[in-house]
Structure of Glutathione transferase GstA:
Amino acid sequence: MKLYYAPHTCSLSPLIVLKELGLPHQLIKVDNQTKRTADDRDFRDINPKGYVAALELNNGEVLTEGPAILQYLADLKPEAGLAPAPASWSRVRLQEMLNFITSEIHAGMAPLFNKELPPTYFQQRLQRRMATLEAALGKHAYLMGAQFTVADAYLYTVVGWFAFFAIDLAQWPAVAAWEKRIAARPSVQAAMQAHV
Ligand SMILES: N[C@@H](CCC(=O)N[C@@H](CS)C(=O)NCC(=O)O)C(=O)O
């Protein structure tokens, strides 16, 4: 499998999951400005949407969209428990959480990267959404319960951008404690070293 990635972006989360699962993979860096890959191809020929992450399977299929990639990877090794069994109620709950992260946190932060937009509205909106995650992590060690799942890899990635906007994670103590635990995982450290 090939993971197309760009440093400091959401492609970190599938890389954490690849490391968690010990799955063989090749990393291909993408310049998000020029849309050229490190092996000098036009990234839009691989993913016409032009953004990372994109996962190229050994059969040539290219899968995009973080939540789909994360669940595909988790299902390659169900015994690792990074996602509950497909069609189970717990799986629906995981999908609910992944959708919340992707649409409310990840996409909700996108306007903060745009210097032409005033940040206040988006920061306040994000803070309301974070209250939901603070409540979840106040109840259990990981987002979905006692077990690390792909949702933790995803949220860790997007919460990592808060520092760029001087958003202090300490205002959500349960999220801040969880973030430290996730950062200490060997898979996360390996992914952070490779995602440069
Ligand atoms: N809906 C996509 C969004 C992916 C996305 O926002 N990728 C960003 C990095 S985090 C990107 O590559 N942006 C460059 C661009 O849109 O040109 C997903 O959830 O995977």
Residues 89-109 form the longest helix (21 residues).
